[in-house]
């Protein structure tokens, strides 16, 4: 059953359901960390091509942060999750005197469930021009950070991956951080989950805006992607309904295959979700890149 | 089969499919007008309680404007549809020297598929303060127009109907025009259809923000509602899928009944749709209310 | 010299400059509090009509919070100022089980220097509908809060004061909190100062949108106004220039008096200012009204 | 007297006031065209280095479109001005089967008087991806159009000129159209004037965001700039005031020179201005680039 999801943790759950994974240790390493306060982190590493095939995702690290109560603004929960984001991100990006980073907020700011990237990008502390101004080659307290909102192909006419690559030529970063909306299988994931990965953005992820991947292979440098599920594919809720009511899996899959509507399913409080999660991710990034300013 | 739709024309289509309507003339009058240029208008009048029960909609007039090619920006199509909106609206609101109108743009401006109302309202030519300033009791070229964006209960804490009623007490209009996003059954309707009705807004229409109706009964004066389908209920696409694959209608309806996710289905180019349709409706209203300025 | 300012502290400074105030204790009481971390609070009380005439402001309390480094995002400064806002606000609004508050975000969200009110309002935790839903008469942890963005007369056609009064009839609050952009005399004030007052909003304050005051007299209940200077009157920078270059004050004042351009002066980083100060004020209000949730 | 202005027509007016221009024909050619309906077009050509020095602007063509009544939405005025924009633009950009254009909307969308560029860009019909999709090498009805909103250095950390140049490498356009807010000397110009020039954007124009020029020299291809004055420099209104009141020009200039506030002066209805002028310019561009669609 080929549910669409951009989350490694959901792909892993599907494998477990299917019982397709006889040997857990072959190609996939998984570790859970309890941060307390209803915050859990699951680190999944896909270590070889067998893991890739099983997980239908490229080799690399996938960190899933799960937290309850963010939209309800439970006491201090946003502060706590920000700190976890920073802590996990620091494992992938080590701050040093010369650290130079390009942040790219993907998606269409005019379509609410696709606005996570631009909304987060607008809250990033950008410093590249200050380094230029003061002719500084580095700093002990903050990184050299540039930021771009490349828009979507429907409004730019261009491939997002190509715009980022060209921008990257300008500022020559050591690492690119891309932020994007993701698609989940399970509606419960929307508003509780953040995924951080060093494998970048896969083609067709999220709202399906990008045809080309944004990763180390296409960019030529390390790409860290941070995403939050904001949409569910229409075929996901249809498949769920069919499976519960029809015995023939083949019949279900045939119907899904022929289903060709370009539609997205999202929650009605998506505006709050985008606001809260862009705050959390931007603050997590700011703490990671500018440890002397945001402590 | 109880598909959710805010469009009278779709309810009528479902009746026809079901063959439930033995006598067309009883309670429902329907008339099609061809405006040329791929623009069709269907006027449906529900004339008595039998029609109400059949159509599951209150008695009154429902005008459906259907046009092809709006998102593709076919040559001059927006101008043409604007004129049809004005022409049909003029049947319901007659301009005169003392005409005093309150326009209310319903919905959440921060959630794209719900932003039709606020987006349209922001393009309305507002004049009430000018009449106050010049102490004019009326005008031959323009109406006295006030405008409000009442927001949604989740962000105001209040019922939208009550905010509009209170505002209406301030400016004492002869008629209220409310603009809102609607829910359709058929995805094809999204981006091709405008509905104008003198029955106002039903409770739970569109994104389901409002619990109370906004109509002549609750407001005490005539209420014209203008809407565009921007969302499909999640249960609609599920029901469609189940019906095609399961024989037992009862089983389908039972599944739907128990389905309790608060989700909306919309198209990925919803930003363009909101922009184009708010232009069209605002211009149609401006032409109707200010015939001496917008000709 | 009649500089335009909405800040009591600037009016007091002008009095001191002019030496017009022979007896400090008559009608005006002033007290400075050092909160540390470069945060100063000045509490001014105008106690009688003599103070009113001197200060050209109505009797009541004016609390000025001054802080350095907010736009530069100095470490933790926003958190600290939020706490001071909450602490001072709690002196004016005492939380209790039945506390019922209407928050009104004044100004035009589409004009950046006027967007403080709507921007803050969008970050307020609104609860009135939850109290309705659960039929609660009060709560130990949170207040009953409603929220409105009444817009500006140019886009609504109505007086803002009247919209707020009508809305207030709906929810019957104990106190109204209005947030608005203010005009300062001194450009340095922009981005460093917050004023809290129990005298409400004066006619013509800020961008000059409102002709009617929003205060206890017009609303019938207590009105707390929170403002941040975001604009300088064009005549202020002109007067400053003339005074430094011309001896005759009369000539200066005559020129200013005849100057009739409708213009505003603001800073080029006004977008950051609105973002940061709306965060601070919204969090300060949330802490005050919902002490069990935001601690 | 060195008033700041980005408008060639104002520079010419200042020359005329000063009487500095003994020989009109030397280096500057000017021609007025009356389009009727209160629309005037002035074409200024700076033909040699003497003209450059006199006008303090680079050699090239400057087309100024002046129209009354746009904000008042006088009957049909927007349609008429759109047509004039298209007509003048067609003199600079000839449509042909292979025409390939990059449109860049400069400025900060979050600061209203700086939002002309992004606001216009969002209304441009973008087609580059369609040409890619259908592997078309050209078209008889529409051009190949890409579009970018490069943001401002304060939020990207990068020079806008460099971002545009890199993007231009991607799509290899024949011409770049840049849209930007401009600074005028005379407040009357705000809301009545559009300037089109083939000399691009000068460093420090408009809100002063860009240090590098965006023109044929820096981009390597033809650059057409379209601008509308939305701000007045603070020193302009101060200088006006001082000159009227002080005899010594030297004293005035000394004061201005030492004035170092980063402030902008704009009108209070700037939101309407941005909306109307971005509509007009976008439609003018669409008519020019896609003659088969927008006639």
Structural description of this entry:
The structure is a homotetramer of 295-residue chains. Chain A is an alpha/beta fold and 295 residues long. Chain A has a single domain, classed as HybD-like (Rossmann fold). The first copy, chain A, has eleven helices and nine strands. Chain A has helices at residues 8-18, 49-55, 77-92, 116-121, 128-133, 153-156, 160-171, 216-219, 234-245, 249-258, 270-289; strands at 28-34, 39-46, 60-67, 100-105, 144-148, 175-184, 193-197, 222-233, 263-267. Chains in contact: A-B, A-C, A-D, B-C, B-D, C-D. Chain C binds chain D through residues 108, 110-112, 154, 187, 207-208, 232, 234, 237-238, 241-242, 244-246, 251-252, 255, 259, 261-271, and chain D through 108, 110-112, 154, 187, 207-208, 232, 234, 237-238, 241-242, 244-246, 251-252, 255, 259, 261-272. β9 (263-267) of chain A pairs antiparallel with β9 of chain B.
What would a concise description of this structure say?
The first copy, chain A, is an alpha/beta fold. Chain A contains eleven helices and nine strands. Chain A has one domain (8-289): Rossmann fold, CATH 3.40.50.1450.
Key features of this structure:
22% strand; Rossmann fold; 9 strands; alpha/beta; Pept_HybD-like_dom_sf (chains A, B, C, D); 11 helices; nine-stranded mixed sheet; 295 residues; homotetramer
């Amino acid at each position: 059953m080929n549910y669409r999801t951009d989350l490694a943790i959901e792909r892993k759950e599907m494998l477990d359901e299917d019982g397709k994974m006889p040997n857990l240790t072959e190609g996939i390493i998984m570790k859970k960390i309890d941060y307390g306060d209803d915050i859990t982190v699951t680190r999944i590493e896909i270590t070889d091509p067998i893991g890739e095939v099983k997980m239908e995702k490229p080799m690399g690290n996938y960190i899933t942060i799960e937290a309850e109560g963010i939209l309800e603004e439970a006491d201090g929960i946003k502060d706590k999750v920000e700190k976890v984001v920073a802590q996990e991100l620091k494992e992938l990006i080590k701050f040093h005197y010369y650290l130079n980073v390009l942040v790219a907020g993907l998606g269409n700011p005019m379509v609410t469930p696709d606005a996570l990237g631009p909304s987060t990008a607008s809250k990033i502390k950008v410093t590249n021009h200050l380094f230029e101004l003061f002719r500084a080659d580095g700093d002990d307290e903050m990184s050299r950070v540039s930021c771009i909102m490349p828009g979507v192909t429907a409004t730019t006419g261009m491939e997002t991956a190509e715009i980022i690559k060209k921008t990257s030529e300008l500022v020559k970063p050591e690492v690119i951080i891309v932020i994007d909306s993701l698609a989940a299988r399970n509606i419960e994931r929307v508003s509780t989950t953040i995924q951080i990965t060093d494998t970048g953005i896969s083609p067709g992820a999220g709202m399906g805006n990008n045809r080309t991947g944004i990763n180390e292979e296409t960019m030529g440098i390390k790409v860290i992607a941070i995403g939050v599920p904001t949409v569910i594919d229409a075929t996901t809720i249809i498949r769920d309904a069919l499976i519960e009511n029809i015995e023939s899996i083949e019949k279900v899959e045939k119907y899904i295959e022929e289903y060709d509507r370009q539609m997205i399913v999202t929650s009605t409080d998506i505006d709050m979700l985008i606001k809260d999660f862009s705050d959390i991710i931007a603050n997590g990034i700011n703490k990671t890149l500018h440890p002397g300013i945001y402590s």
